[in-house]
Structure formats: C-alpha cells, structure tokens
C-alpha cells in the first residue's frame, strides 16, 4: 500500500520536475499519469520492471482506492465559493448561465462527434 | 483557562482536525443519501457537501483559509488521483485502442468546443476579462485548471469554483439528457461527460455504467493534456 502510494507520488514528482525543468505547457500530474502508464506497459514486456508495487496488483489497487473517492477531492475547491460571494452577487447569474450553456453544448458536440466517427468507421469496415 | 464550550470551539475551529472531519463527515452523509436515492442526479454528493459546508462556514464566521488548513489534505489528493487514472487506462487499453479514432476526434472537437463556447458566451454576457480568463479552463480537473489559470494571470480560486460548478452541472444533466436523446453507446456517453465535467462527471459515469466510467476517466485525463495546450492558444485568439 505504502510502496504503491509512493510510486504514484514519485510519478507525480517526476512529472512536476520535468514540467518545471523543460517549461512544458502540460500539468505535472498529467505527465505523471503518462509515466505510470509507460511503467505498467513496460512491466508486461520486461521482468526488470515487474517488481515491488508494479507486481501483484499493488499499484492497481491503490489507484482504484483513490479513484473511488474522486468526488470527495473536489469539495475543498468547491467550498472556495465562500470567498467569491461578492463576485457571485454581481455576476453569479451570468457565470452560472455561461457554464450551464457551455456544458450542454460540450456534451452534445462531444457525444455527436464520437458517434458519427464511430458509425462512419464501422460502415467503412463492413463495406 | 476555562473549560467552557466557547473556548473549546475557539481552539478546535483553528485546528485542521475539525475541518478535515467536517469535510469527510458531510461527504460521507451526502454520499450515503445519494446511494439511498438510487444515485438520483439531483442527489449529487459534491453539490450537497459543497453548499452545506459553505453555509456552515458562513454561519460560524470561519474563513476559507482556516477551513482549507484542514481540507487541504483532501484537496492534495487531486494530483495523485490524476496519476492514478493511468490504471483504468492501462486495464482498458484494448477497448481504448479499438475506439481510438472516434475518441481522438471527440477529444479535439469537444475540447475546442468547451473552451471556445465558454469564452465566447462569457464575452457575450459582458463578463469582465479577468472572469472570462478564469472560466476558460473550466472543463478540466481542478488541479490542472488552477495551474492553467495561474499561468494566464487569472483568478485561480474563481477557476476552482467554475470547475466544480461545471462538474456538478454536467453530472446532473448527462443521464436525463442522453436518455431522452436515446443514446445507448456508453462509451460515447462516458467520454462526453468525462470531457465536459472532468472528475465529477467521471464519478457520475462510474455510478451509471462501468464502461462509461472508464471512457469518462480517459476523456478526463486526455482533456487535461489537450486543454492545457489549447487554452493559451484560444485565449490569444479570442480574448487578447
């Protein structure tokens, strides 16, 4: 458990260091995620990597444990709304309106793109 | 030293312990209620925890800084949780590889739509430029969005609020909307909600369907990558 969490933190740390060192426009944790993915793929190919938390489902279980409570982690940032009451009193309706319309448009466009491309591909394959 | 309840409150209200406990307790209760309603969209645990804690802070006159001294331990986990997304991605690599083309198309189109729509709408509604910039990265997970916001010189704490609101709205609306439109492809449904509403949408998708959850997680992680590349570009073209 601790070794698995350490591996996850190490990936994040390596991501943060690389992002800062090379001034990449990518968030550190995202690079950390790519690093962990590469490690998991390497493990299946080379015995050298199949050690510690990378074997016996160690890192997998730790990751699933974290992801099971993903909603919880957004609460502290969300409660930050108490700092923004003045701004929300002034622009709250507009902000909520803008976000609501944007999220509906985004959902529609994304789901439509996915379905259209996936249908075109199956048709192309069966033809 | 008097042992009256007020001095005990004064002591505890300055300690991280109380606020960490409040955060976990309110969430555990909201989550149990959500489960009891059969995961009804309006019983969203993030939404209800957020307003209950906010009202509690306002009623007790507690500052956000004091609250955050305890809640930061939970907030910190957003980073490791982003790294942890590598695991569902790895485990479903075959399903993902099979759907790679529609996913990448939906990713690029959806991500651009999320950014452009919010920037143009915010400008059309006459919001100040600082607010427009703060709303731009609202569709990605909180830690990443706050980083983007800081690099734009915008208000990262407003971005965090916009991120959470976007997540909650997407999570509430997605199931009724997709059902009404008769969309039964859970890969597409999950991908859309993960892209539009990051972790809160992903948590919702896992409640509805396991495949939807996996695709939501993938969309959320890929979107974090693409949004951090696209937001600075979109802002240069649309705002400045």
UniProtKB/TrEMBL annotation, chain A:
Location relative to the cell: Cell membrane
Keywords: Cell membrane, Membrane, Transmembrane, Transmembrane helix
GO-annotated cellular components: plasma membrane
Superkingdom of source: Bacteria
Entries under Pfam families matching the protein: LrgA (PF03788)
Membrane-topology annotation of the record: Multi-pass membrane protein
Protein name: CidA/LrgA family protein
Organism per entry: Tardiphaga robiniae
């Amino acid at each position: 458990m601790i070794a698995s969490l350490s591996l996850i933190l190490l990936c994040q740390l390596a991501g943060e260091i690389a992002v800062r060192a090379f001034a990449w426009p990518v968030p550190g944790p995202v690079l950390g995620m790519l690093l962990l993915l590469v490690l998991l793929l390497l493990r299946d190919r080379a015995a050298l990597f199949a050690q510690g938390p990378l074997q016996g489902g160690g890192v997998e279980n730790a990751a699933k444990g974290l992801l099971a409570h993903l909603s919880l982690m957004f609460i502290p940032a969300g409660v930050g709304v108490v700092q923004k009451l003045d701004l929300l009193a002034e622009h709250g309706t507009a902000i909520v309106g803008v976000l609501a319309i944007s999220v509906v448009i985004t959902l529609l466009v994304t789901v439509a793109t996915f379905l259209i491309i996936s249908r075109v591909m199956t048709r192309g394959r069966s033809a | 030293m008097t042992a009256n309840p007020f001095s005990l409150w004064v002591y505890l209200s300055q300690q991280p312990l109380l606020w960490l406990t409040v955060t976990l307790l309110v969430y555990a209760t909201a989550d149990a209620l959500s489960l009891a309603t059969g995961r009804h969209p309006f019983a969203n645990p993030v939404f209800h925890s957020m307003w209950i804690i906010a009202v509690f802070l306002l009623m007790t006159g507690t500052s956000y800084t004091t609250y955050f001294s305890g809640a930061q331990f939970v907030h910190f986990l957003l980073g490791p949780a982003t790294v942890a997304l590598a695991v569902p991605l790895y485990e479903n690599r075959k399903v993902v590889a099979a759907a790679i083309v529609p996913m990448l198309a939906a990713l690029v189109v959806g991500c651009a739509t999320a950014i452009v729509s919010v920037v143009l709408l915010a400008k059309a509604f006459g919001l100040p430029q600082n607010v427009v910039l703060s709303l731009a990265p609202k569709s990605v997970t909180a830690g990443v969005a706050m980083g983007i916001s800081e690099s734009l010189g915008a208000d990262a704490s407003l971005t965090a609020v916009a991120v959470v609101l976007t997540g909650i709205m997407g999570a509430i609306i997605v199931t009724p909307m997709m059902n009404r439109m008769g969309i039964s492809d859970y890969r597409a449904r999950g991908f859309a909600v993960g892209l539009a509403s990051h972790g809160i949408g992903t948590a919702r998708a896992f409640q509805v369907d396991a495949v939807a959850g996996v695709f939501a997680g993938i969309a959320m992680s890929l979107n974090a990558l693409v949004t951090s590349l696209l937001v600075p570009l979109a802002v240069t073209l649309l705002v400045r």
